[in-house]
TrEMBL record:
Catalytic site positions: 312
The name this protein goes by in its record: HECT-type E3 ubiquitin transferase
Domain HECT: 20-344
Catalytic activity entry: S-ubiquitinyl-[E2 ubiquitin-conjugating enzyme]-L-cysteine + [acceptor protein]-L-lysine = [E2 ubiquitin-conjugating enzyme]-L-cysteine + N(6)-ubiquitinyl-[acceptor protein]-L-lysine
Keywords: Cytoplasm, Transferase, Ubl conjugation pathway
Pfam families listed in its UniProt record: HECT (PF00632)
PANTHER family named among the record's database cross-references: HECT-TYPE E3 UBIQUITIN TRANSFERASE, UBIQUITIN-PROTEIN LIGASE E3C
Organism annotation: Selaginella moellendorffii
Any GO CC annotation of this UniProt entry: cytoplasm
GO process annotations (BP): protein polyubiquitination; ubiquitin-dependent protein catabolic process
Length: 344
């Protein structure tokens, strides 16, 4: 049984869990100090929800949040103690043990690392898409010397730009066609391993306190994410409520009515494709789909052209198609080829 104060949730949880560390693999019951009521699951779920909200608050300093990828990542400059990162790991483990789904937005590489799988360049695509594209392009370049790159990484530390050498004397070793693969490997290793080694080690230690053992090896990393986060819920009703219309469209326009009718009939996979097509990301942001503020804008009269999107501004450009059938055909074609069509 954990007894915690709402006003001091993180510190109380750290204290209580350290006192009861030998009971981590028992069903969890939570009592909020000063509140009556028996915990039949609802209080525990609220405890997890509030604690995760506090721990992942960017202002708290443990994690950073990327607007580009919509993922949280370990703050390499964090001033928080190992115990607090260990607490996050314990919370993820307890969530699995108690059947509670968490609203945690980690990239898959976190679950790979928990299972002891070494990160690769491909894992950077989810977390830092722009860096991934740059490093990937580097590998296919012929005249790489002209870029004047060296075996070092620059990073921001509380407003001061610092440099980390990827190899001894790396600031004097230029990247060439012969050593570019090693440079990329070391760069990825620094971003996903070395720079956050202390924080992740504590986090993993906490997780294994609860979920360590041979059974963990039976899971794939995707299954581990599913255990912790559940199936991603996409509330497209919230997206519809938060959408605004421009260029002559209103919520009562035929095309708009047809569009939302089609969305309601889509499969989960098709909805994810639509989300990716319009926003450049197939995951809902932390605040849910209602916080996206989608804009649907009229893009001319009836035409054979496909819908397009300005993903940076969450703008979907829809011509005024003459029928719902035509809209369905054009929209389906556009979103199923979203890596090659209409993304700006």
């Amino acid at each position: 049984i954990l007894q915690v104060r709402r006003t001091s949730l993180v510190q109380d949880s750290l204290h209580q869990l350290s006192l009861h560390h030998y009971e981590l693999k028992k069903p969890l019951m939570v009592i909020f100090e000063g509140e009556s009521g028996v915990d039949q699951g609802g209080v525990t779920k609220e405890f997890f929800q509030l604690l995760v909200r506090d721990l992942f608050n960017v202002g708290y300093g443990m994690f950073t949040y990327s607007e580009e990828s919509r993922y949280f990542w370990f703050n390499s400059n964090s001033m928080e103690t190992d115990l607090e990162f260990q607490l996050v790991g314990i919370i993820l483990g307890l969530a699995i043990y108690n059947g509670v789904i968490l609203d945690v937005h980690f990239p898959l590489v976190v679950y790979k690392k928990l299972l002891g799988i070494d990160p690769r360049l491909q894992d950077l695509r989810d977390l830092q898409p722009q860096v991934y594209r740059s490093l990937n392009s580097l590998l296919s370049m012929e005249e790489i010397e002209s870029m004047d790159l060296y075996f070092e990484v620059s990073y921001d530390c509380f407003g001061e730009i610092k440099t980390h050498e990827l190899i001894p004397n790396g600031s004097s070793v230029q990247v060439t066609g012969e050593n570019k693969q090693r440079y990329v490997d070391l760069y990825v290793n620094y971003l996903l391993e070395t720079s956050i080694a202390t924080q992740f080690s504590a986090f993993k230690r906490g997780f294994l306190q609860v979920c360590g053992g041979p059974a963990l090896r039976l899971f794939q990393y995707e299954e581990l994410e599913l255990l912790i986060c559940g199936l991603r819920h996409y509330d497209f009703d919230a997206l519809e409520r938060g959408t605004t219309y421009k260029g002559g469209y209103t919520k009562d326009s035929n095309v708009i009515q047809w569009f939302w009718n089609l969305v309601k009939e889509m499969s989960v996979e098709e909805k994810k494709q639509l989300l990716f097509f319009t926003t450049g990301n197939d995951r809902a942001p932390v605040g849910g789909l209602g916080s996206l503020k989608l804009i649907i804008q009229r893009n001319g009269d009836d035409t054979e052209r496909l819908p397009t999107a300005h993903t940076c501004f969450n703008i979907l450009l829809l011509p005024e198609y003459s029928s719902q059938e035509k809209l369905a055909d054009r929209l389906k074609l556009a979103i199923s080829n979203s890596t090659g069509f209409g993304l700006q």
